[in-house]
Amino acid sequence: MTTTSQPVDNALGASQTSGTGAQPPESLSPLEQEVLDEYARLVGNLNNLSTLLSELSTNPSAEILDALRRLERKTSLVFTLLKSSVYSIVMNQQAFSGAESDGGYGGAVGQMAGFGVEDGRQ
Hints:
The chain has 4 helices and no strands. It is 78% helix and 0% strand.
């Protein structure tokens, strides 16, 4: 990690001296130096992350692909269950609203009468 932080420290020192030109890097307070060191570590970590992500994007691993396939199946199942739940709710609401307007017989029974099923009315 010292190899990656060394160029970063030089770059930070150069930007610092070129900004004002009056203060050399040795006159930094301990807090300022600590902040600069944290930025240097952050730059190193971001470079490592960038390298790793570019490697993963060019060569996706079998584990990731398998996990994505499992996720796709689960998502499809959840979507199907959601559609069936919404359909069930809609049908129950239609049956309830039909029961109120049908005199107590329920809309589902009236709908079934169209298919050759008798509704039992006299």
